[in-house]
Task: structure prediction
Amino acid sequence: MRQISNMNIPRTDQKRVVIIGGGFAGICLAKSLRGSKFQLVVIDRQNYHAFQPLLYQVSTAGLEPDSIAYPIRKILKKNKNFHFRMATVNGIDPDVSEIQTSVGSLEYDYLIIATGTKTNFFGNAALEQNAMPMKSVPQALNIRSLSLQNFERADQCEDLVERQALLNFCIVGGGPTGVELAGAFAELKRHVFPRDYQHMDIDEMEIHLFEGADRLLPPMSETASRKSLEFLMNLGVRVHLNTLVKDYDGDILTTNKGETIRTKNFIWTAGVTGASIRGIKEESMHEHLNRYRVNRFNQVKGYPKIFALGDIAFMETERYPGGHPQVAQPAIQQGKHLAKNLKLLEKGKSMVPFEYHDKGSMATIGRNKAVADLPFWSFGGFFAWFIWMFVHLMSLVGFRNRVIVFFNWVYNYINYDKAARLIVRPYNLHRKKN
Amino acid sequence: MRQISNMNIPRTDQKRVVIIGGGFAGICLAKSLRGSKFQLVVIDRQNYHAFQPLLYQVSTAGLEPDSIAYPIRKILKKNKNFHFRMATVNGIDPDVSEIQTSVGSLEYDYLIIATGTKTNFFGNAALEQNAMPMKSVPQALNIRSLSLQNFERADQCEDLVERQALLNFCIVGGGPTGVELAGAFAELKRHVFPRDYQHMDIDEMEIHLFEGADRLLPPMSETASRKSLEFLMNLGVRVHLNTLVKDYDGDILTTNKGETIRTKNFIWTAGVTGASIRGIKEESMHEHLNRYRVNRFNQVKGYPKIFALGDIAFMETERYPGGHPQVAQPAIQQGKHLAKNLKLLEKGKSMVPFEYHDKGSMATIGRNKAVADLPFWSFGGFFAWFIWMFVHLMSLVGFRNRVIVFFNWVYNYINYDKAARLIVRPYNLHRKKN
Result:
């Protein structure tokens, strides 16, 4: 008989639902299963759910990390027969309905893969080694530390060339993350750093944003692209459209046009790929995107007991032949929907197909400036910025986090400040990124 | 001619005051020098001033680190001709009035050493390697991460002996830090962990506090000692008086009585020693305490241009033949006092001797429980706790920090919660402590 370690989770008479990933999809599913007759196991590498849309504010000293993260155990403390495990999942063995994790193996009755995406460097080892990604709280903190450390170094540096490298901020990727980061750095340059570094010529700080397409925010409307470009240029950001960054050796960035820029601040937001797990057969994957092919019930093709949700799921529909956009809304909606379907399944009823309701998308560029694409209206400016703030505040988990983020925003707005500019744990270039 | 790198700080016609250390003493001096005719240089290894009395709340998930720290550049942004350098000072060369730092050398006209203390392991290498100290924000965060990680590991652990080691919290040192930490862990055990770890028997968590003297809080009154012991015992803390911890190998703790306890959470608050810098001759040091001998003007003996402040200064007076207590108040008062004296010195007037005004001392044990020694009154209980909160809130630097700490306290109080229990950067036992 095979020895099975059960990670100290006892088998009860309830069926076991195992969710891998505590992002939007996993958490929404778990919350919606409250009161259902399942044993629930949530596995994540972190003990918290992070609100990814605000990571860029952690990177740019606008918010402290604790206010955009929330302990998973606390979110789900009202679920009965619930277990959380902080672990990495290394593989799935569908033949015996089991997963292998860093802390042992576990059987499942239903397995839900909600692992999201990871940064895609498109196989370029130099980029992977030298670029700063921004997909997690520690990574966002690394960017905050590194950029502040580089300002400190610049202030004591007498060499003009070296100082320029320390003060050049290069962001690759003109999607929402890149646009929001560039805008936030521009605000630091305009309002905060001149007060902190009074002996420095702030014009030496340059912010560059690179986008391969011919416009910013490619998945959004033309209005959003045009307005965001206008806002960024007014803030002094140098936007390089139709430009791919081919290489970065830790010192010099090279574009596909042969242009080079010396920089010590190189942030990569130019692509993601699915954070897939070993064990699912190739034909059930979209190889290029690294997403699991699912049917309208989010079932991974060929595996009736395995589901995939959110960014990692590839659901072809008539309206979305290329799969749903990899943003929060499809993840949230699929998580809630699957909870209903699992309950139906248990009652022996048939599941209901998923239908995505696009609520629109938004990006903020800075003080009083944002762009919004609602289903029938694209616009930009103060009103979009106000809506952006309201929506993001209300989307945060927990009353405490909402109050603290709100207070920070009001404080920073009134004082033209970004108050969390602390190098709490200095970034070490030789440390493996986590 | 000797080549002197000036760390990119130009010589102006103003005399240069160099302050090493951005703790209470250094910051109070720097703030009080606002408007004076000096060039001011502040050097610290961190870019922020940390409010050390609340570090224990960072360790126990009550506060996020950003709310008890404040950027030094921001505190001093109104000072004219002010420079900050994030650097380590490696030595002092009084013969040429110069210091050597990790980012170059610097001449001074007046040098102020305000480096405080560091953890003292009394030469025990095993303790130094395996114990968690708590003198800085990163160290406090390490304790938070490690204790939460150990709870996660305990939840998935089937072995009773190993689980007990993960759930034993051993704190060495019955001074204010040790007492406050033990009380805060006891509150986590009582109110927070039972909700988070519903499948665990919370009684398996034990909190041990070790003190070499025959009473807790040895520098405080008998009333404070008695009350704090009573409060801790009511909270279920096992207090070991007259007990020295001789050894800890990362797994097993051994006392001078031969008792052993298996633990993975071992926090050392049992002693400090001066964080002195090379270059001052031996007769100007109190060798045992590692503090600089200063006269009533805080001048280091034999060095008219070098001053020492706060914890690192050893000023023998009639009322304090063993030097002032190493707490915030002498540092704050000496910092402000020295600012006056430096201004007098510049005007060719004679300096005024320092006189310490004891405002009393306090320690908090938990919800509604604290002890206070005011100059003519020692008491404990709810009123002491209320005073403790008010004094600490008002002592924080910055309106923003006060509001956020206040909100966190109110939130945690009402909800019997400690909301910041995030493992933002997992503690790695093999990482060098910083």
Summary: Chain A has a mean pLDDT of 94. The first helix of chain A runs from residue 24 to 32. The two ends of chain A are 38 Å apart (CA to CA). Chain A touches chain B through 54 residues (CB under 8 Å).
